[in-house]
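Dear Dr. H.,

I hope your travels went smoothly. While you were away I took the liberty of generating a structure for the chain from your last submission, since the lab meeting agenda had it listed for discussion. I wanted you to have the full record in hand beforehand rather than looking at slides cold. The sequence, exactly as received, is reproduced here:
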Amino acid sequence: MFLKLQPLLYSLIFLAGLELIVFFHEHVPLIILFLLLMAMFQGWKIGRKWKFSVLPISFVLSSVALLYLVTIRYEQQAFIILASSMYYLSLLGAYRLSLYERDQTARGMTAAATISTIFFTYASAYGLYLNFLVPLYYLMIVYLLATLFVSYQYFSILHIDKKLVWSYSLLLSLTMAEIAWTINFWPFGYLTSGVIALIMYFVLWDIIQSYFLSILSKKRVVANLIFFSILIGLVLISSKWIPVI
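The corresponding predicted structure, in token form, is as follows:
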């Protein structure tokens, strides 16, 4: 079943909140606060564990930030629909996992929502960094914290050893913070930088995921590195370079 009333209702509230932000700028802080409180409650209510609030909260923060970087009206509407759909997936995945922890479909939903919110966070954080001259260490902290908590929620579904899950999540988050520092020197916009950071995250995320699922192999690692290196190359070649002044 891909339609559940509670996750669908909460996702529609999230969608309505983003629409209100677009059309009623003077009430943005109140709308964001409401969405954050709702996200915290929704994750716990549906998933029956506080860790399932991580993705909804991350979606609220990253979606609002990214929404401010999208200026064309129809693109804003397309983004709101996309963000709301992934928000629904995160809640539906949490709901199904609360019923059966080994639900493979629910894991897939959570994985998709994880990758989406990571991209939203990386792209929006880098966009705000570029447009508002935010100090670099703020960007690195955002990458670190977002990666840490979002990764922990997903990896904790795969492995019961919380200490081990926290350790690998922390290692991944520290790596992504360093990558954020490296990307700072590249002459690209926030979307290109977000895509590159996401690809690097995915490579490491997949290695850790494979380890937890006991399917890690040299062949898989090499194949991923080759494929995603080519993908990064294509992204760099096809992207617009920003002149460095």
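Two observations you may find useful: The chain has two domains: 1-99, 133-245. The chain has a mean pLDDT of 90.

With kind regards,
E. W.
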